[in-house]
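Section 5: illustrative case.
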């Protein structure tokens, strides 16, 4: 097999999966619809990836804000969940806070636990569990992006399959008309 033949199949697969933005001169209505569906799938996957990146950047920004004006306090966990835990803590000036949005990085907390938290002294509602940071957000956000692209890839394969079946049907009709 020649080198050109070796690359022929992957290139044809790539061309069938990656959407063309421009219209082909003899494009039918169904081909136009499938092209737009393909573009929509890629845009949706890009938006999921952007969301994941923004999630990590937001966590990093919150950490920087806390580190600029850091206060440390002992807190009681009032309610615990995998995504949100409610806490209550008292600052050194004896003001009790119960952050409205809960605590950042709440995994592995149970109601009734006593933990140490780091908070922004300028905005005590911005609180994280001590010794936890934005690096904990990388794996979940990356997983969401990867799963998004896997789903998009499967959808693109499905669209390519439909397009090939439609092309075969069109070829059969054209052959029957010529006979």
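Designed sequence:
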């Amino acid at each position: 097999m020649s080198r050109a033949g070796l690359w022929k199949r992957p290139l044809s697969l790539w061309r069938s999966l990656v959407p063309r933005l421009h219209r082909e001169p003899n494009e039918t209505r169904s081909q136009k619809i499938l092209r737009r569906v393909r573009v929509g799938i890629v845009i949706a996957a890009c938006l999921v990836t952007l969301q994941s990146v923004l999630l990590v950047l937001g966590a990093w920004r919150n950490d920087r804000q806390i580190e600029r004006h850091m206060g440390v306090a002992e807190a009681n966990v009032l309610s615990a969940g995998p995504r949100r835990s409610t806490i209550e803590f008292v600052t050194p000036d004896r003001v009790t806070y119960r952050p409205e949005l809960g605590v950042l990085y709440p995994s592995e907390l149970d109601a009734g636990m006593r933990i140490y938290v780091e908070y922004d002294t300028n905005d005590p509602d911005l609180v994280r569990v001590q010794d936890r940071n934005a690096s904990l957000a990388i794996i979940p956000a990356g997983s969401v992006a990867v799963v998004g692209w896997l789903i998009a890839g499967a959808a693109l394969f499905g669209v390519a399959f439909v397009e090939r079946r439609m092309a075969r049907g069109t070829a059969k009709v054209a052959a029957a008309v010529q006979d």
